[in-house]
Amino acid sequence: MQKDKEKFNLGRQLHLSGRIEEAQKIYHHLSKKYKEHHILFCLLGTTFLQLKKYDEAIINLEKSINLNSNYADSYNNLGITLAEIKKYPEAIQNYNKAIHIKKDYFDAYLNRGISLNKLNKYNEAINDFNLVIKYQPRNIKAYNNLGNVFKNLNKPNEAINEYDKAININENFLEAISNKADVLESQK
After folding, report:
1. Cβ atoms of 152 and 145 closer than 8 Å
2. Residue 112's Cα: distance from chain center in Å?
3. DSSP 91-121
4. What's the confidence (pLDDT) of residue 2?
5. Residue 67, CB-side half-sphere exposure with 13 Å CA sphere
6. pLDDT in tens, 124-139
7. All residues at 6 or more sequence positions from 158 whose CB lies less than 8 Å from its CB, including other chains
8. Where are the alpha helices (DSSP H) in 34-105?
9. How distant, in Å, are the alpha carbons of 36, 113, 119, 173 from that of 157?
10. Are 146 and 114 in contact, with CB atoms under 8 Å apart?
């Protein structure tokens, strides 16, 4: 048991340091022995998501949910996986479940806002991003994605304003810099 705990902790360290395939091997090995460990299957599913192996990610994340339907991370990560394959309504359903379990799960609000934006549900997306910003005023992804909504609404000044907020927090945030440049270019 102690040796398996050490392996699990090593897997987590590898995972957090970006060594996804190595972490996945450890999680997979442990999952054969610990078939009822929902966190292990959530982590295994997350590694498949990160490696863009979406079918395997869905299988493992759904297994995690079947083992424990009150673990918000599994729903959020399943939502991300579904959004990656452009199943936005299903993704939103999973983000909603994550938020129902954990009301202050701001990553799920952010992810839901991104999917809502993809579905042209701009007001709902704006509400999600503003909620994230209210509680995490330095969340550069929320500002950037709020800028994307305004870009989609053809409100370039508002978009640039949001991108600038992200850039002011992190001047090296390339996504916001690129998005701002795109909007400025489209105004020419």
Report:
1. no
2. 9
3. HHHHHHHHHHH-TT-HHHHHHHHHHHHHTT-
4. 85
5. 17
6. 999 999 999 999 999 9
7. 147, 150
8. 38-50, 54-67, 72-84, 88-101
9. 51, 20, 22, 19
10. no
Contacts 24+ apart (CB under 8 A), 12-19: 12/43, 15/43, 15/46, 15/47
As a whole number of angstroms, the distance between CA 163 and CA 118 comes to: 18
SS3 of the chain: helix, strand, coil, percent, to 5: 80, 0, 20
- Give dist(CA 108, CA 102) in Å, integer: 9
Whole-structure pTM value: 0.94
Model pLDDT for residues 87-98, shown as the tens digit of each residue: 999 999 999 999
Which residue bears the tokens 């800028």?
Answer: 147
Q: Which amino acid is at 34?
A: Y
